[in-house]
Amino acid sequence: MNPALKARGLARGQRPDLEEELLRAIPLAAVTLTTTVRVSVLLSNGANLEAQVAKFSAPITLDAKGNPLKDSGRDLALLKIQDGAYPALSITDKEPKVGDELHILGFPGVVRDHELLSRSALKEASATKGQVSGFNTDAIGQDVIQTDASAVHGNSGGPAVDDNGSVVGVMTFVSLRGNAAIQGFNFLIPAKDVRAFLAGTDAKPGESRFNPVWAAGVAALFGERYSVALAKFREADGLLTGLVVVKRSMKEAEYKRAHPPPRPFPWAWTITGVVAMLSVVTWGVWAGHRWKRNRYRVNPGQVIDFLEKGLNPVLLDVRVPADYETSPLSIPKAIRLDPEQIARGTIDLAVDKKQLIVTFCTSPDERTSAEVVRLLRRKGWSNVRILKGGLGAWANARLPVESKSHLPSIGIEIYRNLTRGDIERRHYAPGVVIFEEGQDAQGEAYVVHAGTVEIVKRYPGGERRLNLVKEGELLGEMALFRHAPRSAAAVAVTEVELLVMRNERLEWLIRNRPELTLELLKHLSDQIVSMDSDGGRAGGGPGDL
């Protein structure tokens, strides 16, 4: 195939119709197949480098009974290629924490094999974003890091890097249901085990003649010294010709040298090039933008570190009034500060201007906190941070929360796990029927956000109250569990506000939030005991909704 195309002055992929014609013309009876064993490394410049396996630890393999085979290991291989100047990644020495952000780099099969993408998809890596979501062990007791960053077949063996570009783990396996990957439950080999695997070898993570040249080019580009940046990128291209990210950066430097931007970057002196140099793919320049957005943001784990170090950060609740008034949860000892009053210039905050302050809200991308931080810094508070993910991230990290009003324990767990997507609100006046007995559940359960709901059983000639559902309690969930119509009616006793929870969301929470599941079981047990103590005449048993 290749010689025939070359004779016509063509490369693979330029004339698919001709390739098919040539393949069909080959007499299969005359074809002799010779198998060879070869390991190679493909760079984004198209170079295919011969490689030798310098060290190998087999992946976990299970026998027919599901038991790991004896040679199951750490699922790592060290390949040796010809000497040269190649981009190199460093390996972090920090222990990961739940909530830490990471990015998985790799070559997912859905991109590599996509029929509508060019062959360049084979050369450029893809990056997916997520967080450390837990820690686990594999079938032979080795540590693995759980992450919700997306990964599929083809990502295996790819690095997961932090915001500084250091390797925090290596992709090892995903979760499957049938033949389909279930996203949100993927697993990494920890950096400490990667370092242990490399011990005793000649590998030196992060060391390369290419890295400092590339870093100098990126730093110059961010510093608007475009001629210097172009010279460094050309020098990097000379060390390793044709890398996609280098060619793209050269074009950007050439364009900006000819068409300088009208305004300077506000982060011109930021050395985010250290991040960009460690990646041979597309996220080099993007890292600078992420730094600007996240420079004042801290995750819940970092706030706990502040407390352990005795810094005693002041927590400011800056949720917009609508969110603050309707949400029953807050962080213990948080000071309430109305963002609308701050915007009008009224800042009633008796805190030293040098005190460490952490703001939190429930707005998308922490927009309210970001605006409050900007105004506080303008007024002289210099050490102000933003809680990444807001109140939701704090609650999901299982850190302490307090209720602004009395809530049952199940209510606290429900509100911990609600997201903005759950908050469809419905209002009912006193005496209005929310649903009737025998009515289809339509895949909906509810959280009583405000007010009281009466559960009523209707009989010929009268009706009987079975239960009262109060603020923070679930309503209508049993019809979903039983896949049956409503077994009783629900009527608003007072002004009632309900939060709607779809069946699939409730099922996901029960499967994935054990604390909520435990509280739900306790709640149902209490209902059964109450029904038994009343001789089955009242109390609202599990089948009442």
Describe the structure.
- It is a single chain.
- This protein is of the alpha+beta class and 545 residues long.
- Helices cover 31% and strands 23% of the residues.
- The chain has 18 helices and 26 strands.
- Helix 5 packs antiparallel against helix 6 and helix 15 runs antiparallel to helix 18.
- The C terminus is likely disordered.
What descriptors fit this protein?
disordered C terminus, six-stranded antiparallel β-barrel, Thrombin, subunit H, 31% helix, 545 residues, five-stranded parallel beta sheet, alpha+beta
Mind sketching the topology for me?
Blueprint: H1 2-7, H2 16-25, E1 39-42, E2 48-57, E3 76-80, E4 101-106, H3 109-112, E5 126-137, E6 143-147, E7 159-161, E8 167-173, E9 176-177, E10 180-181, E11 186-190, H4 191-198, H5 210-222, H6 226-239, H7 244-258, H8 273-277, H9 284-294, E12 297-298, H10 300-308, E13 314-317, H11 321-326, E14 329-330, E15 335-336, H12 339-343, E16 357-360, H13 367-378, E17 384-387, H14 390-396, E18 402-403, H15 409-417, E19 424-428, E20 433-435, E21 444-450, E22 453-459, E23 462-469, E24 474-475, H16 477-482, E25 489-492, E26 496-502, H17 503-512, H18 514-533
Parallel strand pairs: 12-17, 13-15, 13-16, 16-17
Antiparallel strand pairs: 1-2, 2-3, 4-5, 4-7, 5-6, 6-11, 7-8, 8-11, 9-10, 14-18, 19-26, 20-25, 21-24, 21-26, 22-23, 22-25
Helix pairs in contact: 5-6, 6-7, 15-18
